[in-house]
Specification:
Blueprint: H1 3-22, H2 39-54, H3 60-73, H4 76-103, H5 117-125, H6 137-145, H7 152-168, H8 171-198, H9 213-223, H10 234-243, H11 251-261, H12 264-290, H13 294-304, H14 311-315, H15 319-342, H16 347-362, H17 368-381, H18 384-400
Helix pairs in contact: 2-3, 2-4, 6-7, 6-8, 8-9, 10-11, 10-12, 16-17, 16-18
Length: about 400
């Protein structure tokens, strides 16, 4: 028997055993060829060290921006050199990968559409597809600018260039993409709530919101939304002004120590200034909300964190009277809740009686309690004209009683 064939068969068996027992990936094999980096990344690696040597004080992000600007300034002929080198390296990579799979067939990838163990496990559990998370404002901007016919390497290069343009873009232009993300975020939360009701046992991971506070601030400036004051007390106002003097390490402890050194008269000045700023902010909020359509006011109040105070509470000067009023309001609210609980018939009840069979056919596996939640969500989404019909039913029933 030939020793070479025995050696090759033994190494093949060893590779097969390792792949099946330990789940070794293709890229973990020492003979698997390395994929070439795109032309832009190759240019970035070449230029980054040179730019860093000339500008040692800059951060990593600023250095990357400088390299990106240099790439954008290259002529078509200069870029063609990098692109041609990348295409040659990619052809060599594909040839070496084919040779690797010929010698190691156990590492060959499965064809698209072939189910793996994880997918069969999911199908056994019977879990439906979760709603896809919303896109960020930058993702919407990239999607509108990327060319559909571009290759993956070209898309990566375009995305890097769009990052620089996005950073220099005006707030008014960004507002359009932020609004798109906010709309998707609302739809995603509604669909996720429906999914949780339909599949109470399915694990649902918490995802970060696609719109950050910085994006909301940009949208607020574009809308003319009033800016909230630094704080609701004199101490908060003092700390914000102290921090604004410069980049001070441990500014919280230092500002607290400085505040203690102030006289009562000086502290009273800051307190009066914060109250005046808060009053001006409330006035600006009222003017801003009055100019908006009614359907947008509730959402804007949540963003502003502003609720108009009742005149009765504002008129009472002493804290004792205020506490008494709050206690009376609490007793009245409890009475109203008990009255509502004792009266089972409502517009939602009539809607459930009318639509129950449809929902049972649509969601046969959903439990009764979860089905009621789904019907309540569906009723909340109805337009006011359709809701009016069910409210009229409640009024007619009250007249009969």
């Amino acid at each position: 028997m030939d020793f070479g064939s025995v050696f090759l068969s033994s190494t093949y068996a060893a590779d097969l055993l390792l792949a099946s027992c330990f789940g070794i990936l293709q890229k973990d094999h020492p003979d698997f060829p390395k994929k070439p980096i795109p032309s832009y990344m190759k240019f970035h690696h070449e230029m980054f060290a040179k730019v860093k040597a000339r500008n040692p004080e800059l951060t990593q992000a600023d250095l990357s921006k400088k390299v990106t600007k240099r790439w954008n300034k290259l002529s078509d002929e200069e870029r063609a050199v990098y692109n041609a080198a990348y295409q040659d390296e990619m052809l060599q990579f594909k040839r070496r990968k084919a040779e690797f799979f010929a010698f190691h067939p156990e590492f060959a990838q499965k064809k698209k559409g072939q189910k793996g163990d994880s997918e069969t496990a999911k199908s056994r559990r019977g879990q439906s597809k979760r709603p896809s998370p919303p896109k960020t404002p930058f993702d919407h901007y990239v999607e509108s600018r990327l060319s559909a016919d571009a290759s993956e390497a070209e898309k990566k290069e375009q995305k890097e260039a769009l990052k620089v343009k996005w950073a220099d873009m005006s707030d008014k232009r960004k507002a359009k993409y932020i609004e798109l993300s906010l709309g998707e975020q609302k739809e995603y939360e509604e669909k996720l709530e429906e999914f949780r009701v339909q599949h109470p046992d399915a694990p649902v991971k918490r995802r970060m919101k696609c719109v950050t506070q910085a994006d909301l601030d940009v949208l607020g400036e574009a809308y003319g939304r009033p800016k909230a004051p630094a704080g609701h007390s004199g101490y908060n106002l003092f700390c914000s002004e102290f921090r604004g003097k410069g980049d001070i390490r441990g500014w919280m402890a230092k500002s607290s120590a400085e505040w203690k050194l102030l006289s009562p008269e000086q502290k009273a000045v800051y307190t009066d200034r914060s109250k005046a700023a808060l009053k001006e902010y409330h006035k600006a909020c009222e003017v801003y909300l009055a100019g908006l359509p009614e359907e947008k006011r509730d959402d804007e109040r949540k963003v502003l964190k502003y609720e108009p105070q009742p005149s009765t509470v504002a008129a009472n000067g002493s804290t004792k009277k205020r506490r008494r009023n709050e206690a009376d309001c609490g007793i009245e609210n409890k009475k109203r809740k008990s009255q509502n609980e004792s009266s089972p018939v409502s517009a939602v009840t009539f809607y459930m009686l009318e639509e129950r069979e449809k929902f049972q056919k649509k969601f046969p596996e959903v439990k009764d309690a979860n089905l009621k939640q789904l019907m309540t969500l569906a009723f909340d989404k109805l337009p006011d004209k359709e809701k009016k019909r069910f409210h009229e039913m409640v009024a007619k029933l009250a007249q009969c009683v």
